């Protein structure tokens, strides 16, 4: 059945079949590969998702690749690159490590260049999905009125629920970092970061200003919910966010932003619509001071393995946003693509 129903991979608006390989796989991740030649398109149209130029020496195709991904095309001891060149009868030129540039594929036959380019695109797509995210797209929710309510909620929870299993002050979000996450991105060089910023500005001009009328949206942050099935074993507790006027404008903007970023290839599609939520407690925030001291010299992570907490009583406390003052809202003019450095693991 795997032969009759092969895995389909979407790249650049086209669909390719992922063929099975019978040979022994290489032990290193960098050597992952699979066949994807010019005849592997899932439809009858020619593979024209990229440009192949005719030159005096044959044919050529160029592909911009962030330098951190070069190693996946080179492979262990250059084996992946050599195999691609041998099987497609092409020459593949890759910039030096750390130098941003283009991978250039040249060959006597157009079909060989197309095959090599297709296989490189598939490899890049596969390994990009395995990279930890570097940025997230968000609405800031760090206005003073919301921060004040959040700190009141935190104080009340610690006063009434500190004896519940797993509850501690280290679980709470930093008030200055309260936000609505729309989606995460893997941006591996300055060019990709600039592309994301440009797209964000285009979205603002194309539909955000039209939906908002150029004014900030006033939201209400009221009540908390948990993400797993059992409130006694909670990992993430989030505040519910809705428009003060009862409209769905914030949801529409969030969904359209994600749709544009997914279409650009900068973001992977995970859900049909964005779940509007602001994380207030997360077990990934939990720190072990002893472990942190022990690992200062080694550089190892200071985070413990995820330990759930009992959120039943917290849910009874959690109307943190009631009576939120008018004007506490999402300022869409300050919508930003925020780089995540040490806080990568802290975003749910």
Automatic annotation (TrEMBL):
The record's section on Pfam families has:
AKAP7_NLS, KH_1
Look up the record and report any one GO term of the cellular component aspect.
nucleus
Q: Name one GO biological process term.
A: DNA alkylation repair
Q: Where is the K Homology domain?
A: 57-125
Coiled-coil stretches are none
Question: Organism's domain of life?
Answer: Eukaryota
Q: Which GO terms describe its molecular function?
A: RNA binding
Gene3D superfamilies in the cross-refs: Cyclic phosphodiesterase (3.90.1140.10), K Homology domain, type 1 (3.30.1370.10)
Q: Which UniProt keywords apply?
A: RNA-binding
Q: Which PANTHER family match?
A: ACTIVATING SIGNAL COINTEGRATOR 1 COMPLEX SUBUNIT 1 (PTHR13360:SF1)
Put simply, this protein is called Activating signal cointegrator 1 complex subunit 1 isoform X2
Taxonomic placement:
Eukaryota, Metazoa, Chordata, Craniata, Vertebrata
Q: Which gene encodes it?
A: ASCC1
């Amino acid at each position: 059945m795997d032969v009759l129903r092969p895995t389909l991979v979407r790249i650049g608006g086209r669909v390719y079949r992922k063929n099975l390989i019978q040979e022994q796989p290489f032990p290193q991740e960098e050597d992952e590969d699979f066949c994807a030649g010019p005849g592997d398109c899932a439809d009858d149209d020619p593979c024209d998702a990229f440009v192949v130029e005719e030159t005096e020496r044959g044919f050529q195709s160029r592909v911009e690749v962030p330098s951190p991904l070069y190693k996946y095309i080179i492979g262990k001891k250059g084996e992946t690159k050599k195999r691609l060149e041998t099987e497609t009868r092409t020459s593949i030129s890759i910039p030096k490590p750390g130098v941003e540039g283009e991978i250039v594929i040249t060959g006597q036959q157009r079909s060989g260049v197309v095959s090599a380019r297709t296989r490189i695109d598939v490899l890049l797509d596969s390994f990009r999905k395995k990279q930890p995210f570097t940025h997230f797209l968000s609405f800031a929710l760090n206005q003073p009125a919301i921060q004040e309510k959040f700190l009141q909620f935190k104080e009340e929870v610690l006063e009434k629920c500190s004896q519940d299993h797993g509850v501690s002050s280290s679980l709470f979000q930093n008030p200055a970092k309260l936000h609505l996450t729309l989606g995460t991105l893997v941006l591996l060089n300055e060019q990709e970061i600039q592309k994301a910023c440009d797209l964000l500005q285009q979205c603002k001009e194309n539909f955000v200003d039209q939906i908002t009328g150029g004014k900030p949206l006033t939201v209400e942050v009221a009540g908390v919910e948990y993400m797993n099935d059992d409130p006694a074993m909670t990992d993430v507790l989030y505040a519910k966010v809705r428009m003060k006027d009862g409209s769905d404008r914030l949801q529409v903007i969030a969904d359209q932003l994600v749709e544009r970023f997914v279409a650009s290839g900068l973001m992977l599609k995970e859900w049909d619509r964005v779940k509007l939520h602001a994380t207030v407690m997360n077990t990934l925030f939990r720190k072990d001071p002893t472990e942190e001291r022990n690992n200062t010299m080694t550089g190892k992570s200071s985070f413990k393995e995820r330990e759930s907490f009992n959120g039943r009583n917290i849910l009874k406390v959690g109307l943190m946003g009631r009576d939120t003052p008018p004007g506490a809202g999402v300022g869409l003019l300050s919508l930003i693509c925020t780089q995540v450095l040490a806080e990568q693991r802290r975003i749910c």
